[in-house]
Amino acid sequence: MARFIKKFNSFKEQEEYHLDIMRESSVRERFRRLYAMQQMTALLHPPKDLTRKIIIRKWTY
To answer: Which end of the chain has the least Cβ crowding within 10 Å, N or C?
Structure first.
């Protein structure tokens, strides 16, 4: 996919441009983009370790 800068006159024009690109893309390309978004989200928000850790300390006097 070639990268370039495109200027739009309105948000509506920008939205229609991106919708046309999505309509013309194949299913494989859409899934590739979805996978790339999931990978970026995983980098920005790493999964939390949801296991509980119980620490028992023995206090001696």
So the answer is: C
Instruction: Say if pTM beats, i.e. exceeds, 0.70.
Output: no
Angle, alpha carbons 53-54-60 (nearest 5°):
145
Map the chain to HEC letters. Answer: CCCCCCCCCCHHHHHHHHHHHHHHCCHHHHHHHHHHHHHHHHHHCCCCCCCCCCCCCCCCC
| Residue that has been written with the tokens 């390309």 in this structure | 29
pLDDT mean over 38-55: 85
